[in-house]
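Data deposition worksheet. Section B asks for the primary sequence of the deposited chain exactly as it was used as input, without tags or linkers unless they were present during the calculation. Section C holds the resulting structure in token form. Section D is free text for depositor observations; keep each observation to a single sentence. Incomplete worksheets are returned to the depositor.
Section A, Depositor: J.P.
Section B:
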Amino acid sequence: MRLLVHWNAEVYADRDELRKNMDHTDDLTHDIVFTRLLKDLRDKGIKVAEPSDPLHDKDFIRALIATYAIAPTTDWATPGTA
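Section C:
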């Protein structure tokens, strides 16, 4: 017989931090995320228009992929390259 016990604890600095977590006033929204991504792209010198619909704007999505995609550095499919 197997018995799996999982215990989780959340630790807060104070009641204010607990309140923010419980009432979700500090949660990320799509607007916050896209604003931060646009700022980071522009800080990196990447020119991208502000999208009216960031979830479906193909140019914006391509800019994100080109900037943040991480390609493997090792070709695991080719023997002897690992």
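Section D:
The first helix runs from residue 15 to 23.
The CA atoms of residues 15 and 21 lie 10 Å apart.
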